[in-house]
Automatic annotation (TrEMBL):
Record field: compositional bias (Low complexity): 166-192
Acidic residues composition-biased segments: 145-161
Leader sequence segment: 1-25
Limits of the PepSY domain: 81-140
Name under which the protein is recorded: Peptidase propeptide and YpeB domain protein
One Pfam match: PepSY
Region (Disordered): 27-80, 130-197, 215-235
Source organism of the structure: Streptomyces typhae
Biased amino acid composition, Basic and acidic residues: 53-63
Keyword tags: Signal
Length: 235
């Protein structure tokens, strides 16, 4: 379950300016924080990919593209010195509460950890960006559960119910997001930790990993026991 608390605008401003920008809060919740530039910058593959898109007409090109994707994933894993568990710990120091997810994302050519934290009061959600090279908190964004209450009542009700279900699951879990990341760390470099709320039950952490050669892995970590099993639902 990845909440759509986005600070891309803030981070983009910081990346373009090469310095810092001021974060803002939605719903009139003024809690400014600083957003900085990630120390892990990725190579631009857009031109190469665009040229290759025109020639992708057989299985050989598809296989080459798959190898390129694996190479990029492996390079990102190597460039990220800060683990998922470490990024979660850094985010929780900045925004105390319960970590709900952590994703290593690319943002305008920069690599960042995006960690979602449910505040201690159970109503305020924090999206915290952490530098994968240094562990420094780059910026944060705040959203209350009652934000957007004037929108579509049906959609708001569904979102609120989903948030409540996930919040209850993580607060009652014996295994935290950080512990789930450590548990799956033996399978490869963890790139994502999230609550699996696709079914009627919320009982596992959904963890994604990448191996040294760029091969992706998908794992379930039990919220109660911490047992790691392969996620058979992913092809």
């Amino acid at each position: 379950m990845k909440r759509n608390i986005v600070i891309a605008t803030i981070t983009a401003a910081a990346l373009v300016g090469g310095g810092t920008a001021t974060a803002f809060a939605l719903g009139g919740d003024d809690e400014p924080s600083a957003a900085g530039r990630s120390s892990v910058q990725l190579k631009d593959h857009d031109d190469r990919d665009d040229d290759r898109d025109d020639a992708r007409d057989d299985a050989r090109d598809d296989a080459r593209d798959d190898q390129d994707d694996k190479a990029e994933d492996a390079a990102e894993a190597k460039g990220a010195k800060v683990s998922a568990a470490e990024a979660i710990a850094a985010a929780l120091k900045s925004a105390p509460g319960t970590a709900v997810s952590a994703d290593r994302d690319e943002d305008d050519g920069a690599l960042v950890w995006d960690v979602d934290v449910l505040g201690k009061d159970g109503r305020i959600w924090h999206s915290v960006e952490v530098d994968p090279g240094t562990g420094k908190v780059l910026g944060s964004h705040v959203e209350r559960d009652d934000d957007g209450a004037d929108g579509d009542d049906g959609a708001d009700s569904d979102d609120a119910a989903e948030d409540a279900r996930v919040a209850a699951a993580v607060k009652g879990a014996s295994v935290t997001a950080g512990e789930a990341a450590k548990a799956a760390g033996g399978k490869g470099t963890v790139t994502s930790v999230d609550i699996d709320d696709d079914g009627s039950r919320v009982d596992v952490w959904d963890v994604e990993t990448v191996s040294a050669d760029g091969t992706e892995g998908h794992w379930n970590v039990d919220l109660g026991s911490g047992k790691v099993t392969a996620d058979r639902s992913d092809d």
